[in-house]
Design brief:
By secondary structure, the protein is α+β, with helices and mostly antiparallel strands. It is 34% helix and 23% strand.
């Protein structure tokens, strides 16, 4: 990918279909705005199940240019808040369905990779949520109790059992068996090529400026150099929702950070669970995490979250440098052999976050035929693909296989994030991140 202020991810952008900017007035049966995993999954399922429909995918830059190509490739079962909080907020039955839906989303991505023949460094292996801090231990205890009460297969691990798998002195953990790691840009690119092979039209370098109901039905979408009239539209724009004024509640754009390293020694790679493909996520808020790369290096992320809106460019650059520097120190602390390990890539990306930790996947109020997908709160690799498939099913008028999940909704809760509230929110994030970084 092209280097930028956001840094350079460890993933190479694959070959992509032609994507000229949208010029003049165009039409489509379905317009999908956003060429990330959610938008492309929606276009893919529409084209596969309803061949002959004219589908256009439009992006401000191009496939994998946003969060979908700047993730860290952890494919794990997580949707919404931690399981114990999900039980308190939504009840046991809904919490169990939410978790099982996230597990199903992981298996569907694995199946999709097989169908697309994605050369994306896919490695199946368990994901461990672990901790070294008392606060994390208490959180793990609450989650373990909830999983047991719901009859879900998420075993507890003692400190010795965690260390036997990854060789880091954690004191306890939870084992998620259905998990994997992969190259997110490769998966996004493969979906784009599959869509193009099915006749989907692509337009790049065309940021959406406005969307409104069409005078004769459908909707109209404005771009810098043209206009698109469509019968239906899917706005898979995630944290860009506020800039478009979409009535989808508060989708807060937050910046998160990652680094990748040079290959480690064979001994360190084995001790860190590399050959078994383990990924490890800390149980604390803003959890730092790491996972092995197929070339013998490591990817690490988390530890810092920045609210970029209203933050000047110099302060944002300084925040990025501090976040990357802390991640480099943290990953080097995982094993004695990593003390002088070079960092080869540093990057950041924007995720969409909601006040209750749940995504928003539903029709947009006041815009008939327009749907929105976003707000996965940093857990969108598997769920974005599932959300795209769900919206495709809804647009085709197929019956829903079950009751709506809590994130099948049109808006997230409103949050006071402007004016005097913004500095308070930024301070809260800084304090919470600082506490996690000191503990880890």
């Amino acid at each position: 990918m092209t280097p930028s202020a956001y840094g350079t991810p460890a993933w190479e952008l694959p070959d992509l279909p032609a994507q000229p900017p949208l010029h003049g007035t165009a039409t489509a049966d379905v317009a999908v705005v956003g060429a990330g995993l959610a938008g492309l999954a929606c276009a893919y399922h529409l084209a596969e199940r309803a061949p002959g429909r004219e589908i256009a995918v439009i992006d401000a830059e191009g496939p994998a240019a946003g969060a979908s190509g700047r993730g860290t490739g952890l494919l794990g079962p997580r949707a919404g808040p931690a399981i114990d909080r999900a039980v308190r907020r939504h009840g046991p039955w809904a919490a169990r369905r939410m978790y099982l839906a996230s597990v199903r989303a992981v298996t569907e991505v694995l199946d999709l990779c097989g169908r697309l023949h994605v050369p994306c460094g896919l490695r199946t292996g368990a994901q461990i949520m672990a901790t070294r801090a008392p606060a994390g231990l208490a959180s793990l205890g609450r989650q373990a109790g909830a999983y047991r009460a719901l009859g879900l297969d998420v075993p507890e691990l003692s400190g010795a059992q965690v260390r036997a798998r990854v060789g880091v002195p954690y004191t306890a953990g939870l084992l998620h068996r259905t998990a994997a790691t992969l190259d997110p840009a490769a998966l996004t690119g493969a979906l784009a090529r599959a869509c193009a092979a099915k006749g989907v039209r692509f337009h790049g370098r065309s940021p959406l400026l406005a969307v409104r109901a069409g005078e004769r039905g459908g909707c109209e979408l404005d771009f810098p150099q043209g206009r698109l009239r469509a019968g239906r539209a899917v706005l898979a724009v995630n944290s860009a929702a506020p800039s478009l004024g979409l009535p989808v509640g508060t989708i807060l754009p937050l910046e998160v950070y990652a680094v990748a390293t040079a290959p480690v020694s064979d001994a360190a790679y084995e001790e860190l669970g590399g050959y078994d493909g383990y990924a490890v996520v800390d149980a604390l808020p803003m959890a730092p995490y790491f996972r092995p790369l197929p070339d013998g290096g490591l990817v690490a992320g988390g530890g810092t979250v920045t609210l970029p809106t209203g933050l000047g460019a110099p302060r944002l650059r300084a925040a990025r440098e501090r976040a990357w520097a802390w991640l480099a120190r943290w990953v080097r602390s995982l094993h004695p052999d990593l003390a002088h390990l070079p960092v080869t890539h540093r990057w950041s990306g924007r995720v969409g976050t909601t006040g209750d930790g749940l995504p928003v996947v539903g029709p947009v109020h006041g815009l008939p035929g327009v749907w929105y997908i976003g707000g996965c709160c940093g857990h969108g690799l598997a769920m974005s693909v599932a959300h795209g498939a769900h919206v495709a099913t809804a647009l085709l008028g197929d019956p829903d296989p079950g009751d709506p999940l809590p994130w099948h909704r049109s808006a997230a809760p409103r949050m006071p994030v402007h004016g005097p509230a913004r500095p308070l929110l930024r301070t809260y994030l800084d304090v919470l991140g600082g506490s996690t970084r000191r503990t880890c």
